[in-house]
Design brief:
With 195 residues, this protein is mostly helical. It folds into two domains: 94 residues, Tetratricopeptide repeat domain (Serine Threonine Protein Phosphatase 5, Tetratricopeptide repeat); 100 residues. The chain is built from eleven helices and no strands. Helix 6 packs parallel to helix 8. 32% of the residues are buried.
């Protein structure tokens, strides 16, 4: 687990009081607590809790990693999130598409576009369908985040690796971009639709 100097009282209270009530501090307990803290936007407490867990020799499960990764990305703590992502993959877990979307969009917002593109390219090695990736990352993520230029760059990266989306997706992407958009070349989408 990444070094962390944050000392949060709530996690100490939880860890000391739960056993008094007969609740065993196992992976399931930590998973429930971490997920709850992340849902409440308490990423620092969740991060500290996972650190306490590993200090006790317990390994986080996939759900703990995903919850923490989403909470960190949502709060733009991308460096910690990238470390968690690395630790997660070393342990044999992979983020889901929502976690990837959140982290990629956070990196884009922080102008770390090359890192976002690198992450996107490594994500293409996973076993998802091209349309799942396009919908989740490009349409649902980058377009809504106001990143049409980067959206097209990511689409080109997908196609270069033979991950072309369906004809229907090209139509939807073409409709998402205004025709008078100065910074987005939609001729690529039009040529795909004419093919």
């Amino acid at each position: 687990m990444v070094e962390n100097a944050i000392n949060i009282d709530i996690t100490s209270i939880l860890l000391h009081r739960l056993p008094e009530y007969g609740c065993e501090l196992n992976v399931d307990t930590y998973s429930t607590l971490t997920s709850g803290l992340c849902r409440e936007g308490k990423w620092q407490e969740a991060y500290h809790l996972v650190g306490s867990m590993t200090d006790q020799g317990l390994n986080p499960d996939e759900e703990i990693y995903r919850s923490l990764l989403l909470a960190l990305a949502k709060n733009y703590k991308v460096d910690i999130a990238l470390q968690i992502l690395n630790e997660m993959t070393v342990r044999g877990f992979e983020p889901n598409l929502i976690a990837y979307r959140s982290l990629i969009c956070a990196l884009c917002k922080l102008d770390r576009r090359e890192k976002a593109l690198n992450l996107f390219e490594s994500m293409l090695l996973q076993q998802w369908s091209p349309d799942e990736i396009v919908w989740t990352i490009l349409i649902d993520g980058l377009v809504k985040e106001g990143e049409p230029v980067l959206c097209m760059k990511f689409l080109h990266a997908m196609e270069a690796r033979d991950h072309a989306p369906t004809y229907r997706t090209y139509i939807i992407l073409a409709r998402k971009f205004p025709k008078d958009e100065k910074y987005v070349d939609t001729s690529h989408l039009v040529s795909k639709l004419r093919a």
